[in-house]
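Hey team,

Filing this mostly as a record. A colleague (T.K.) asked me to run one chain through the structure pipeline before their review meeting, and I want the input and output archived in the tracker in case anyone asks later how it was produced. No errors, nothing strange. Just documentation.

Input sequence:
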Amino acid sequence: MSDRDNKPSVSEPFGMYRAESLKAAVYDLFAMPSYFPELETNRACVLLGGRGTGKTTVLKCLSYDGKYQLEQRKNVPARPSTWSYYGFYHKINTNRVTAFSGPELTDRQWSKVFGHYVNVVFCNEVLKFAEWYRDKHKGSPELDAEICGEISSSLFAGEAQSQSELAAMVRKSLRRFETLLNNLSQDQLPNLSVQGQPIDDLCEALLELPQFSQKSFFFIVDEYENLLNYQQIILNTLIKHCGEFYTFKVGIKELGWRERTTLNATEQLVSPADYERIDIGQRLDAVTFREFAESVCLIRAQQEESLGAIASLEELLPGMTSYEEADRLGIDDKAKLIRSDWIKSGISEKEISDIPSLELYFAQFWATSQNLPIEEVLNERHNHKQKWKERFDNYRFSMLFTIKSKKAEISKYYCGWQTYVLLANGNIRYLLELVGRSIQLNRKHGLVDVPISEEIQTRAAVSVAKKNLSELEGLSVNGAQLTKLLLGLGKVFEALASHPQGHAPEYTQFHFMDNEVLSSDVRELLESAVMHLALVRTESSKRMEFETRTSDYAVHPIFSPFFEYSYRRKRKIVLKGAQISGLIAEPKKFIQEIISKHGVEQSDEHPQQMQLFEAFFNDVG
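Output structure:
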């Protein structure tokens, strides 16, 4: 990444989500998360989070280049000599690392070859920094000829006589090694360095220079999950034994860390002894994430003249109370019919005239579902006010899913800044998609930017959910299975939301019985679903770290507007491993099997956006 004198333009600040796409603009739009200072400590850290949680942005801002860019944007001279640490960012490229496998070499030989490659790559990153630092601080002391010669020789890169020559030789050695990679054989292996030794030697030599005395070096490794299993073991070994001359900051998706051992099979990486575990989902709870997300969105809003004046996201994205939404969905028409029927049955009009329409609708629902006379329900409301209030509050939100016909263009609203935060579920990219799509649709309709109507917000939420559902198939080798699983689970929770009679309100999660042994196929599918954000996983009270069976699962809330059920983390249903497989292979049969246990019959009526998948739900084709 090159330095720039001028700030990069951000033409669509809510339309760019990936740090790679933003390039230098990522630093203009950076908002520091609360956990950032922990990454700046001189100890190994592992940053866990799903796709879109901001790992890459944070790690790039931890690098020396990112730190320099951030300081430049404060309109003060950047002074690298005053920093306490320097980070070297490296993203694991799948195209590169998968080339280190195949029948040409034994596993042991591939391990040695990849270990040498890591040496060259990391030394190259350190030397790029050393040359960068020298350009920023002319006249700084450099590595002497003897050290340069020793390091270049250890990497079999030649005999360097200066720091610049060493940097050039290592860079050429890296390119030469990558060129030779596809022509390796057991009889024609190149000279290989001892894993970690050149990195140690180079970092130690730099730290002995006066400008780096008492400083810290970080190797920042992003997308660790892309490493093959044996490659994770090699990097694990470096992490386990780092600390004297450098340390590691690792970005990885949840469940992407498949190997915890080092090259010594009896030695494992353990938190907190060997590294600090920073789980973004846990560190950014609902309140912390909302505050962080608002700061991110306000920074981006300032890039647009039409949005720069907003002081909060509630101004841009107004929400509705349950009563307001019920009114919008047509509750008054239903309440009129209910009142008329009650009056005909002998209920006094005065007795029910002051009951809000939504509560009246719930009273009718409760009487029907519990097979009670309406007089008894009204007496309970009058004589046991607190008990009634708690019951109504418990069901009030779930009633909103039953008011409007599924054939309506909007049968449930998903609007308001607070709702968008819950839909994103700690994922900043999802949140930016929601806000950006709302702004885009608003402009498409030729409307002013502030505020955005509840209808447009809802359409935007459905659009984002549909887009991410359609992209799921291409994210993984088992993406087609993940899509089918999501469709099956989504229909289960939609059916329970649309037909709340006979069961508790707001089922949005599932778990497995403690004594069930899940098949390897189901475990792998669940792990892939979590990694690719089809599902979210939370710790049950009895769960051990990375244990699959006793975790609680939910379809990611971002998909709830597509399926039309609650985005809130509420009650759980119990599933069996066989039902997970069944939802993929025979969705109609297993959807009915699951919901029938809660007194619900499957309906052929789907929300408009789900009608595209009617063939799947009917097991056709």
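Quick notes for T.K.: Residues 29 and 299 are 6 Å apart (CA to CA). The chain is about 50% helix and 10% strand.
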